[in-house]
Design brief:
Layout: E1 10-15, H1 17-20, H2 35-46, E2 53-58, H3 64-75, E3 82-86, H4 89-97, H5 104-121, E4 126-130, H6 145-162, E5 165-167, H7 169-178, H8 183-186, H9 195-208
Parallel strand pairs: 1-2, 1-3, 3-4, 4-5
Helix pairs in contact: 2-9, 3-5, 5-6
């Protein structure tokens, strides 16, 4: 095990509904009911004396453009020492439910600008990029891969340039399925994790940082 975060560090979770997980926006200390709260709970149990500050800045429905727009208001004031980012599935989803298309090129521009801002403003901040994913719990969503796959290629490129840590959820979930876990045990709709799915993400998050 490894304490990893320095005493008093600001750790930020940034993303969409998967990160949001029902948090109360008016309460900056509220982490919701998903993987951010599980990561924080485990860490604080192991290293209570470290007094690390965890912040959930996920907002349901967000796309890459929204994370970029919110950066000045929601991220800069927190002066993060560590930030994890999970974004991309809504850049795909809106194509199919709203005919609002974010091209792979637009997605890359938004994400690259966000990451560049973080590197410029907080050069000591460590960045974890979390890979967006889609499970086949809902067969009607399988067509989404035609849009998602080019965005996954973007994420893979950006992690080589910007990420200190990378969490490949697609691979992690695929391996779990080979070992007897079912899609619906992770996510009923193929996107939003159930509690068990959030637990899987939290454990892999902590393992990636050698905290557990």
């Amino acid at each position: 095990m490894n304490q990893f975060f320095k005493d008093g560090a600001a750790v930020v979770f940034y993303g969409d509904s998967i990160t949001d997980a029902g948090r109360q926006y008016a309460d900056l200390q509220n982490l919701g009911m998903g993987y951010p709260s599980k990561v924080a709970a485990i860490y604080q149990t192991l290293y209570a004396q470290a007094k690390v500050h965890f912040y959930n800045q996920g907002i349901s429905g967000n796309r890459s453009c929204d994370l970029l727009k919110r950066y000045e208001k929601d991220i800069k004031p927190l002066s993060p020492d560590f930030i994890s980012i999970l974004i991309g599935i809504n850049d795909t989803w809106r194509r199919y439910d709203s005919n609002s298309i974010t091209t792979a090129e637009e997605f890359e521009k938004n994400y690259r600008t966000l990451l560049g801002n973080l590197k410029k403003d907080f050069p000591e901040c460590k960045i974890m990029i979390i890979e967006p994913y889609l499970l086949d719990s809902d067969p009607a969503k399988l067509v989404w891969f035609e849009d998602l796959n080019p965005k996954l290629e973007v994420v893979h490129r950006l992690k080589e340039e910007f990420a200190d840590y990378y969490l490949p959820l697609g691979t992690i979930f695929a391996d779990a399925l080979k070992n007897g876990i079912t899609n619906t045990q992770i996510s009923a709709d193929g996107v939003h994790p159930v509690d068990f799915g959030h637990g899987m993400i939290a454990v892999e998050y902590l393992k990636t940082l050698s905290i557990i």
